[in-house]
Amino acid sequence: LGNAWRMPQTELNKSQRIYSLSFIQAHMAFGSIDVPSVVDQRDLELFCLLDRQHSQCVDECGYTVQFNLREFVCKKRFKEMASHLPCYARAAPILSRHCRSRCGDYTPLQHTPLGYAQRCRQLLCDHACTNFVLEKVCPPGEGKSAAKFLLEFTRMQVDYWVKDYVLTHNISLNEAYPASCARLRCDNFTSKNCLRRRRVRGG
């Protein structure tokens, strides 16, 4: 009886590990684009629940969250995000093979003008590559819409980074906003107008 009980638990634990790994792989496939690590609507609901609990804990401790992912994904655009998940899940394996080798792996963000410039150069590459893949593997119209959603999220995220830096260091927005980040505001950028990731000087 003991063995009969342990075997299902072992299989369950194995399934949970594989399922968790699929979250990580799907998340990492998008490189520097900070898409939530979810693969279906149930995962997204759980993500939003945990994020809400985390935000509540932070608030109760007297801190504020500089960029709250829940505001964009879980409150304002939940249905839209959920509708794009099948497209993102379908594209993830191809993104891992095609875009990570082209644009580089995710690295921790350095909260300095140079750090923002480097991250935005990678974001330009990741978005250009992701746009191409999503439009190829997702149904007509869906890939473009899913790519636009990610870009809107990235633009908002970058604005929060730079504006917070400006307030903290008492400098002008023009001084702190790198040229590579400004290019993310263009609707027609491609991987050709982003610098190679290994170059770190300038914006």
Automatic annotation (TrEMBL):
Protein name (Swiss-Prot/TrEMBL): DB domain-containing protein
Lineage: Eukaryota, Metazoa, Ecdysozoa, Nematoda, Chromadorea
